[in-house]
Design a protein that fits this description.
With 378 residues, the chain is an alpha+beta fold. It has 3 domains: 125 residues, no CATH class; 80 residues, Winged helix-like DNA-binding domain superfamily/Winged helix DNA-binding domain (Arc Repressor Mutant, subunit A, Orthogonal Bundle); 139 residues, Beta Polymerase, domain 2, CATH 3.30.460. It is built from 12 helices and 14 strands. A 7-stranded mixed sheet has the order 1-2-3-4-5-6-7, sandwiched between helices. Strand 3, helix 2 and strand 4 form a beta-alpha-beta unit. Helix 9 packs across helix 11 and helix 9 crosses helix 12. The relative contact order is 0.10.
Length: 378
């Protein structure tokens, strides 16, 4: 892979050559012309396509060696030149390499795009639609990244996404110190880790500067999906149990156990979804329990480890972030709490079975309505 920084003229020529190749591969498209933009207008070059009835479509192409998602909105404020004979005008972004996030932003705002490798999404209404992906990048600059699969990064994302926190003006230091303030203290991510995650999320246009300073979530769905895609459910140790206790007796025994567990035992996965999206139903009880509390749990509910036929599934987490419940995990007095809605969603997405269906219910019935109530756009 070439990591050389191309100058403005060189990247423009390279992208123009790539676009010629893309159009030449369309056997039925005979009448098109790539030409420079007149002096004084924005964009780098244009392509005129014949629509076959004396009308034209015009593609206005913006060429960049690199453009981070956080900078994309600068392109949206520009006025478009007028073309009297053009029925359709399409804005096109040409980059050395287009990330999935950048592709999403283009689609959301009606832009087409392509890169030097030939990956593209070119949409000209009434004439053509070309979409190609998966071709290895031929030119990409190294960019700072953050590993969103780590437990510490997950804690930062949960704090940002939790509907309870919608009105919080986050600073990086407040994010770092937030987890030590609750009833059940959770290890605080380092300020350096928070800084790295925040810079990455800002570059990806997933968070933005708030009107009163600090940072806020700009696209909760995309941020949630980014964590979902990075999240590792398999890092939790699973133990299967069988108990004769059922229904109210089991819930009462778990509540009594939880009262002495210091908050480090919660309903999880399907059982949490059952509390948060009422139509989700399944026969097993799912729990997160700290390893130090396992013996007390086994005694409290008279549970035995089994290889099959389990009716209780215990997940022993490798990190206490799963116990960050928020108001969405509070189930009232004499009830064990459950994971917060964000944690429940990503667990369901990764647990297999009918988890994806249950996750969609939590998203639609719980997270989206709460985000809308708090003023976030979804």
């Amino acid at each position: 892979m070439n990591t050389e920084i191309l100058s403005g003229a060189r990247i423009e020529k390279a992208l123009a050559d790539r676009l010629r190749i893309l159009f030449d591969q369309i056997g039925w498209l005979h009448r098109w012309k790539l030409e420079p933009i007149p002096t004084g207008q924005t964009f780098d070059f244009r392509v005129r396509l014949s629509l076959g009835d004396r009308a034209e479509a015009v593609l206005l192409v913006e060429c960049r060696n690199e453009l981070r998602p956080s900078m994309f909105r600068q392109l949206l404020d520009r006025s478009l030149p007028t073309f009297g004979d053009a029925r359709t005008v399409v804005q096109v972004l040409g980059l050395s390499s287009v990330s999935p996030r950048m592709g999403e932003l283009c689609a959301e705002h009606g832009w087409s795009w392509f890169d030097l490798a030939g990956n593209c999404r070119l949409d000209v209404p009434g004439l053509l639609h070309i979409e190609r992906s998966g071709i290895p990048a031929v030119h990409r600059r190294a960019r700072p990244t953050a590993n969103l699969s780590t437990p510490a990064a997950g804690r930062v994302i949960q704090a940002l996404l939790l509907p309870d926190n919608a009105g919080v003006r986050w600073t990086q230091r407040r994010l770092a110190e937030h987890f030590g303030d609750g009833e059940r203290p959770i290890a605080e991510p380092s300020l350096g880790l928070v800084n790295k995650v925040v810079r990455f999320l800002r570059d990806e246009a997933l968070i933005e500067e708030g009107t009163n300073g600090g940072i806020r979530v700009s696209d909760p769905l995309k941020l949630l999906f980014a964590w979902r895609d990075a999240y590792r459910f398999d890092r939790h140790v699973r133990r299967n149990y069988f108990t004769l206790l059922q229904g109210k007796k089991l819930h009462a025994a778990l509540a009594n156990f939880g009262a002495g567990a210091g908050g480090y035992a919660v309903y999880a996965v399907f059982s949490a979804a059952e509390m948060q999206a009422p139509h989700v139903r399944q026969p097993k009880t799912w729990l997160y329990i700290r390893e130090a509390q396992i013996a007390a749990f086994e005694k409290a509910v008279e549970a035995k480890v089994v290889e099959s036929g389990e009716n209780v599934v215990v997940l022993i987490p490798d990190d206490d972030g799963v116990f960050y419940t928020g108001d969405g995990g509070a189930l009232g007095e004499n009830r064990l709490a459950c994971t917060n809605e964000v944690q429940t969603y990503v667990d369901l997405c990764r647990c297999g079975g009918r988890g994806a269906e249950a996750a969609e219910a939590v998203l639609e019935q719980c997270l989206k309505p709460k985000w809308k109530e708090s003023g976030l756009k979804v």
